[in-house]
Amino acid sequence: MVCREAMADYDGPVLVVAGDMPLIRDETVTALLQTHKEGAEGSEGRGVTVASSVFHDPTGYGRIDRDDEGNLLGIVEHLDCTEEQRDNCEVNISYYCYDSRLLFESLNEVKPDNVKGELYITDTVKIMLDRGQGAEAEAIVPQEDAVGVNSREDLAMVGGIMQDRIQRGWMDGGVTIVDPGSTWIEAGCSIGRDAVIEPFCVLKRGCEVGEGVVIGSMTVLESAGRV
Hints:
Elements: E1 13-17, H1 26-40, E2 48-54, E3 63-66, E4 72-76, H2 83-86, E5 90-99, H3 100-107, H4 123-131, E6 135-139, H5 152-172, E7 176-177, E8 184-185, E9 190-191, E10 196-197, E11 202-203, E12 208-209, E13 214-215, E14 220-221
Parallel strand pairs: 2-6, 7-10, 8-11, 9-12, 10-13, 11-14
Antiparallel strand pairs: 1-5, 2-5, 3-4
Helix pairs in contact: 3-4
């Protein structure tokens, strides 16, 4: 709603991503945009496309509600679910692609009619479906990428997952990381091929490490560092 005025003259797709879901990948965004575009170009059009995931334990997440034939009925938050709906393992992870015009129209109708008494953006899906404006959920996100941060424990866990991604990328590019478990490399570093990162090193955003350079154990390289 805060963006309404700034987007008043815009007519096109709008990507909405929750700020507490930091593990989203480029390819997920691309797939969501492409899926929405294809749906929008279909005979029935598409007001919104929701990226969903299938969890082994969906506790706490909103459920993708479908009828017996698999047609989307809406999104139901966990606290508002019936017992039957809670058995559903397809969950909403708060990645959406909207038609801009229909998004702001539907937001006008969102009411705090739920257990928490909050305004849920997920209600826009049911509003669009009731209007015949087209909505669909596509299970395109693997569970390991759909981890939200609701506590400091979650934050540490997500940080570890991101470290695995960052370090794997550098190792695939020819960098030797002797002990990934004791190493911390922030996003935004530059590391040359055949560089060696020994255990217990920290490389902060903006560091530049040349080709073949050895970073000895217990080194902290600040953001202005270039070696």
